[in-house]
Amino acid sequence: MLPISILAGLIPMFSWGIADFIQSVVIRKLGTYKTMFIANLFGLAFTLPFLLFFSVSIALPNLMLLVIGGICQTIAIYNFYRSLEIGEVSIVTPISASYTVITVLLLVLFLGQSISLFTFIAILMLVSGVVLVSTDLKKIKSMHAVRGVKESLITLMMWGIYFFILELVSNDITLFGVNFPATHYISVFFFSNISFGSFLMLFALYNKGIPKKSEFKDKMPFFILFCSTVLYTLAWLVLTYGFTVGDAAIITPISSLYPAIIVTLAMIFYKEKLVLNQKVGILTILLGLVLISL
Question: Are 14 and 255 in contact (CB under 8 A)?
């Protein structure tokens, strides 16, 4: 049986990969703001019923952190959607997914979290594999001219900070003299989703992101966003649970491998062919997964 930290990384990896792939179709059809509005309307509808089945509670310092995290997540998701709308998926996706580097760096610098040599090498292999499998290296030469790169870099930074915040509120940690008591993963999931979901809805409304009446005639985009919300909800539940009982320095890099899923789906459904560096990337990812489980 796979260790909980690896499993808690793999499930979000597949869920995010599939959800992002099917959602990118809607983003290019309806635009960033309308997709943001509908997706988070579904997201809040999935989250609020948790109040009926679970007793959710959170300490004030943790709640304040999750509000800050909600702002970071709002900035990240907006820029990620925008990069998918205007940029090349093969470049912007792996850049955004590299947020693991920021998270691990923050864990080491602020929490003094140590990682073994094997884990360090595995993380480097996994991140390198993501870049290789998700990118045609010939395109990297012109990255400075590719639309969406700026947005994906902002996403990278904001997601890195957000995942660091999830680690703080999921465990009993004292930072700068402030104690952040351990919070049950259901409560972390609930309050984080309510936080960034509300921010994203307001942001979309402010930018007139409500679909027009004529756009409701085509039900397929709404069905796709419903399915992606189910996958995102599953991913966040597993992820927050994993942060509570597992090792964030392992969970984060594995979960960030979702671009490999997107590339695989594109190869199957869009008949895209893998170039040499993508084949090397797949092998690197497999070796990294083996090494990180040792």
Answer: no
Q: Number of folded domains in the chain?
A: 1
CA 8 – CA 57 distance, rounded (Å): 23
Report the pLDDT averaged over residues 17-23: 91
DSSP 223: H
Task: Give the type of residue at 163.
Answer: F
Q: Give whole-number Cα distances, 281 to 132, 170, 274, 276, in Å.
A: 5, 32, 10, 9
* Contact indicator for 49, 221 with CB cutoff of 8 Å: no
- For 179-196, the DSSP string reads EE----HHHHHHHHHHHH
Is residue 199 within 8 A of residue 142, CB to CB? The reply is no
* Tens digit of each residue's pLDDT (9 = 90 or more) over 66-91: 999 999 999 999 999 998 888 777 77
Domain that holds residue 75: 4-292
Give kind and range of the element (H or E) at residue 162: helix 149-170
- 187, pLDDT greater than 60: yes
